[in-house]
Design goal:
mainly alpha
């Protein structure tokens, strides 16, 4: 699966998550939107929910089964969740490590 397709799926999930939020913030989904950490879009529960949605989206749209919420990634202070680009890079690395490159 190519990076652009993954990025498109990430944006789709982010837009859905932002629509479901009812916290009064006006968030524009861009490459630089901070996903987690100080001033991030998600708190820890929101991040886990987003990751599950992203896993479902990858399975449904690309027939790729991944676990994006592993302990190592979640314990990093912001690591792969700094912004959209770092998250897409993280997904690409998980796909490569799993050997599941369908699509």
């Amino acid at each position: 699966m190519d990076r652009d397709k993954i990025k498109s799926l990430v944006f789709m999930c982010l837009r859905e998550a932002v629509e479901e939020m009812d916290d009064g913030r006006n968030v524009e989904v861009t490459d630089s939107v901070k996903l987690f950490g100080r001033d991030g879009l998600f708190d820890s529960l929101g991040l886990v929910s987003f990751l599950v949605d992203m896993e479902d989206k990858l399975a449904d749209e690309a027939d790729i089964d991944l676990n994006l919420s592993d302990e190592k990634a979640l314990s990093a202070h912001s690591g792969p969740f700094r912004n959209v680009d770092s998250f897409v890079d993280y997904i690409m690395s998980v796909i490569e490590a799993s050997g599941d490159e369908n699509g």
